[in-house]
Design a protein that fits this description.
- This protein has a single domain (about 5-150), classed as Nuclear Transport Factor 2, Chain: A (Roll).
- With about 160 residues, it is an alpha+beta fold.
- About 40% of the residues lie in helices and about 20% in strands.
- Strands 1-2-3-4 form a four-stranded antiparallel β-sheet.
- About 45% of the residues are buried.
- A hairpin with a 2-residue loop joins β1 (about 95-105) and β2.
- The longest helix has 15 residues, at about 5-20.
- It has helices spanning about 5-20, 40-55, 65, 75-90, 140-150, and strands at about 95-105, 110-115, 125-130, 135.
């Protein structure tokens, strides 16, 4: 099964454009502005975040692998499967390009990214550091899926 995050993002953008709500300049889960953190290896963290985002949002990444790049990924299997269905419906095969990373603290970063091949350009989300890895935040992923779901409940994302 393929990673659905890209499809979700494109679907959410399409849904937002069609319904007239939202814009492509900022995505779900956008954090408040912050002062950059410099007390850790920011260069290594930026590289790790970029790798996580590019792997997670790559349509060719197997679902089990994608779960490892997503905060609480093991519990979000149903949401990832839902997103994969959206991706297949939209015939999407795009990838993410990280354009900016600002550290909020040593475990949270604001990530600006484009989903190549979609209208989602300059979106913002969060990366979180857990278990020794930088991951795509659950809030960012679920925000994308929920918008793409057009009001439907998304298993694992909705309480």
């Amino acid at each position: 099964m393929r990673t659905p995050a890209i499809a979700i993002a494109a679907t959410l953008v399409t849904s937002a454009v069609i319904t007239g709500c939202g814009s492509s300049s900022a995505g779900p889960g956008a954090p408040p502005s912050a002062t950059p953190v410099t007390s850790f290896d920011a260069t290594a963290a930026r590289a790790a975040i970029t790798t996580s985002w590019q792997t997670f949002f790559n349509a060719k990444t197997p679902r089990a692998t994608a779960e490892g790049y997503l905060e609480d990924g093991a519990s979000l299997g149903p949401a990832i499967a839902f997103a994969a269905r959206l991706q297949r419906q939209e015939h999407l095969k795009e990838n993410a390009k990280v354009t900016k990373i600002v550290f909020i603290d040593a475990t949270t970063a604001s990530v600006t990214y484009n989903l190549v091949g979609t209208p989602l350009q300059g979106a913002t989300g969060q990366a979180v550091y857990q278990g020794g890895k930088w991951l795509v935040s659950k809030n960012t992923f679920c925000g994308l899926v929920e918008i793409g779901a057009a009001g439907k409940s998304v298993p694992g994302c909705t309480p």
